[in-house]
Specification:
Blueprint lengths: L20 E4 L2 E4 L14 E4 L2 E4 L64 H5 L23 H7 L9 H7 L4 H12 L2 H4 L4 H14 L9 H15 L2 H4 L4 H13 L9 H6 L3 H5 L5 H17 L7 H16 L6 H14 L7 H16 L7 H24 L15 H23 L3 H55 L8
Antiparallel strand pairs: 1-2, 3-4
């Protein structure tokens, strides 16, 4: 029996109307319905796989930045919201857009969403799997890009790949398109017998679970990290040693490493006494949540349900090990271990544990590689991450919380933040990576970072010079104004009012 899949043909130049009804799996929902108001109490208890959430708090704000000793887990304990002694911040207003909250309720019958939707997908139903399109062949799933986007994918392994342009050419679907292309390019879909419908659904849901309102931690960042990861996987030291399983794991970890990131950091969660901070005991809260969210999507879509249960659980654990390695607060731990291996020359990539460690280091490099990109790209990323820092600082000021380091726009600038980050975080890591893989790409990255650091330094000096020139000029203007006022005051007393015209 022939099975026909109906998928929409989406134009790349305009969004799908919001009134179009959506279906995903057995659940229907309409993007025109009142999704922006308070959640229905009947929807509060929802599950994804073995993970429980509370949909009234699906905007949970969390980021990375703290130490953690991760326990290997086979099962995943439910995530439940405990009591909030601090709930004066409505987390759902972090990324409010014009018109939110004023959307009129649907006049039709109430619809219930029976399965878990992250906050991002709760607000925006799928743009890729909805509507009533004409029948099209299944292979269109792999060919959902044309023209310039296809030409760019032919050069996806180049370090100057412009992910911002690629995202525009794919109508905001860079993560889906790029990841699908790379999995097919490596032959992983066929090798692991992945169901294309399940894979496409998984990638759509992953992209939607990244918050588009985040200036930095969004799906474009995930796509950029995935592209960087691909560049590292192509390096000779890795290309000749990694297995197909390693490559699959690396690409999936890159695509999901910041899944459902809220745009604020872990200290923010801790000082607001958020339930996720309690759940993970204030250690790698964000990374743990990214991992569990990725596992939830894998289980919900059944992407690896055809594998033996033990293999599937091993994949989930190793995926978590990679994502947890991106915790920047554990940078020195990983760097010290990496340096020791290089000093002792005892890395053996025929050893599975050593290959996994190199994948961890590769993902860490991919995650913070923005300073190593060409200036035009690096500058954009620097401005975006700083905007996200300052956005958090504004929220903290508004609610009279202590402003987190680097988050106060009045005492920090893009330049000084980036120079400090390069000096203390990026340069030490990429110097050791270049020792491990001394290739043209490694030298290119170090070269770009040196030039970018000098460029930020030059901009800082220019800004300092302008401010120093402005201060004396302002002082002179103030003095002149004061002198003129004093002189004017004297003449007013000496000259009678009636004599002024003469």
């Amino acid at each position: 029996m022939e099975v026909c899949y109906q998928l929409p043909v989406l134009p790349l130049d305009r969004p799908v109307p919001k009134h179009v009804l959506s279906r995903r799996g057995a659940i229907s929902f309409s993007s025109s319905s009142s999704l922006f108001g308070a959640p229905d109490p009947r929807q509060l208890s929802q599950r994804r796989g073995a993970i429980s959430y509370d949909s009234s708090d699906q905007t949970a704000l969390y980021i990375r930045m703290l130490d953690v000793r991760v326990r290997s887990q086979v099962g995943f304990e439910p995530e439940r919201r405990s009591s909030h002694p601090y709930l004066c911040i409505d987390f759902r207003t972090l990324h409010t857009r014009l018109g939110w909250g004023s959307t009129p309720a649907s006049s039709g019958p109430e619809r219930r969403v029976h399965r878990l939707l992250s906050f991002q997908r709760y607000l925006h139903s799928s743009r890729l799997l909805r509507g009533l399109p004409q029948q099209i062949p299944l292979h269109i799933l792999d060919e959902d890009y044309t023209g310039q986007a296809r030409c760019m994918l032919e050069k996806v392994g180049t370090w100057n790949f412009d992910i911002f342009l690629f995202d525009r050419l794919t109508n905001g679907n860079s993560l889906i398109t790029l990841t699908s292309h790379l999995l097919n390019q490596y032959g992983l879909v066929e090798l692991f017998q992945l169901d294309m419908v399940k894979l496409w659904r998984f990638l759509v849901m992953v992209q939607e679970d990244y918050h588009s309102g985040n200036p930095y931690h969004n799906a474009v960042h995930a796509a950029d990290v995935t592209q960087a990861m691909y560049c590292y996987l192509q390096e000779p030291m890795l290309a000749k040693s990694l297995t197909s399983y390693d490559i699959l794991l690396g690409l999936l970890a890159a695509a999901t490493h910041d899944l459902d990131h809220p745009g604020v950091n872990q200290p923010f969660l801790i000082k607001t006494d958020h339930y996720l901070a309690k759940l993970y005991r204030n250690t790698s809260v964000l990374e743990n949540h990214h991992w569990k969210s990725a596992v939830g999507l894998l289980r919900e879509t059944g992407l690896f349900s055809h594998l033996p249960a033990e293999d599937s659980l091993n994949l989930e654990r190793e995926l978590g090990s990679l994502i947890l390695a991106t915790d920047i607060s554990r940078q020195n731990d990983y760097l010290s271990r990496f340096r020791t291996h290089l000093d002792q020359e005892n890395l053996c990539l025929s050893n599975a544990s050593h290959r996994h460690f190199i994948l961890q280091m590769a993902l860490k490099c991919a995650d913070i590689c923005n300073p190593c990109r060409p200036w035009e790209l690096s500058k954009q990323w620097s401005e975006k991450v700083t905007a996200e820092f300052f956005q958090q600082g504004d929220i903290e000021k508004k609610h009279k919380l202590e402003v987190s380091p680097l988050c106060d726009r009045e005492t920090n600038s893009v330049g000084n933040i980036q120079i400090g980050f390069m000096t203390y975080v990026a340069e030490p890591l990429f110097a050791e990576w270049a020792r491990f893989s001394d290739t043209r790409l490694s030298q290119t990255m170090l070269g770009h970072m040196g030039l970018n650091k000098a460029s930020w330094g030059g901009l800082q000096q220019e800004q300092t010079a302008v401010s120093e020139e402005a201060e004396p000029a302002a002082a002179e203007d103030a003095a002149a104004t004061a002198a003129a006022g004093a002189a004017g005051g004297t003449s007013s007393k000496e000259i009678p009012q009636g004599s002024r015209e003469s």
